[in-house]
């Protein structure tokens, strides 16, 4: 005879009727909202954000108060003197045109090169990367010294055409030689931005699919590549334009009256005007950055 021992039946050992689904064990309930032993992260989040905002916005607010502080009380006279200041319009126009020209040349040079490297010559990518990152290694002062030597040789050339071409590059109202130098300096930032865009958007797959469907290269570039790289192109253009609007060393050594040079010289006669222009430049840069972020966010939402 076999002795049968009666034992209490637990829920896990209870018999399951035929056809009934097996239920998973219920997860353990958390203790409290964030756990009893969890660190008070949310308590310090506001403190850290407040200190960061004070660190970044504090100098801006102090500078703004310096610009509006007058003898008879707060006044916006420093901001009203901007457009009537001698040399402001010419220097700002020159810097804006140089920025647009540098952005156009940089994108026209780097976009086809990066597409060719990613689509047809992947083995050449390390060489293109090294050449694009060289401006980070070469100091701007050394670059200016070399450019001045080339300009001196061109100005003293016996050929009239060469001398005329170098004279046109050094026009004081629009020094195109600065735009060419800014293209070289902006190469590292443009390369990184376009390379990240090409790797993240899978342009190779999109281009191959468009070509298999019978599209030609102009159509592929306009309808496939440019929409896929819209954010990267905006980032590259913004970085190059911001670099042009803030570059001082090269223009100062070559004695060209760009906006940063004029801004530095205006401080010797009117300190409030200089700080007011610096604040307006900061606001203009932030506005461009917000536009880039907004366009990039709209592009991400449009993707399925």
From TrEMBL:
Pfam families listed in its UniProt record: BPD_transp_1 (PF00528)
Region (Disordered): 1-37
Alphabetical keyword list: Cell inner membrane, Cell membrane, Membrane, Transmembrane, Transmembrane helix, Transport
Xref: SUPFAM superfamilies: MetI-like
Keyword Transmembrane: yes
Stored InterPro entries: MetI-like, MetI-like_sf
Bilayer topology annotation: Multi-pass membrane protein
Gene3D superfamilies per record: MetI-like (1.10.3720.10)
Record domain ABC transmembrane type-1: where: 92-292
Residues annotated as transmembrane: 46-66, 96-119, 131-153, 173-191, 233-255, 275-296
Location in or out of the cell: Cell inner membrane; Cell membrane
Ranges of compositional bias, category Low complexity: 13-23
Family: Belongs to the binding-protein-dependent transport system permease family.
Protein name: ABC transporter permease
């Amino acid at each position: 005879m076999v002795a049968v021992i009666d034992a209490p039946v637990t829920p896990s050992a209870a018999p399951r009727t035929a056809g009934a689904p097996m239920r998973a064990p219920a997860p353990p309930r958390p203790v409290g909202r964030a756990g009893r032993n969890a660190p008070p992260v949310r308590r310090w989040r506001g403190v850290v954000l407040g200190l960061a905002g004070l660190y970044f916005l504090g100098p801006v607010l102090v500078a703004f108060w310096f610009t509006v502080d007058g003898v008879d009380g707060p006044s916006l006279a420093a901001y009203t003197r901007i457009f009537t200041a001698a040399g402001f319009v010419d220097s700002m126009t020159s810097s804006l045109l140089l920025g647009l020209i540098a952005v156009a040349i940089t994108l026209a040079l780097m976009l086809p090169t990066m597409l060719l490297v990613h689509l047809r010559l992947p083995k050449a990518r390390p060489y293109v990367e090294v050449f694009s990152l060289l401006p980070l290694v070469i100091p701007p002062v050394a670059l200016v010294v070399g450019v001045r030597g080339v300009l001196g040789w061109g100005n003293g050339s016996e050929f009239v055409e060469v001398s005329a071409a170098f004279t046109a590059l050094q026009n004081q109202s629009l020094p195109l030689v600065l735009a060419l130098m800014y293209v070289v300096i902006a190469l590292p930032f443009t390369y990184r931005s376009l390379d990240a865009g090409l790797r993240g958007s899978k342009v190779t797959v999109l281009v191959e699919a468009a070509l298999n469907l019978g599209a030609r290269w102009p159509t592929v570039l306009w309808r496939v590549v440019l929409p896929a790289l819209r954010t990267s192109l905006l980032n590259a253009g913004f970085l190059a334009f911001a670099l042009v609007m803030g570059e001082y060393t090269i223009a100062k050594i070559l004695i060209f009256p760009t906006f940063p040079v004029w801004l530095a010289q205006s401080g010797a006669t009117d300190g409030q005007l200089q700080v007011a222009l610096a604040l307006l430049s900061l606001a203009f840069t932030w506005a461009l950055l917000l536009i880039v972020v907004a366009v990039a966010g709209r592009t991400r939402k449009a993707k399925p």
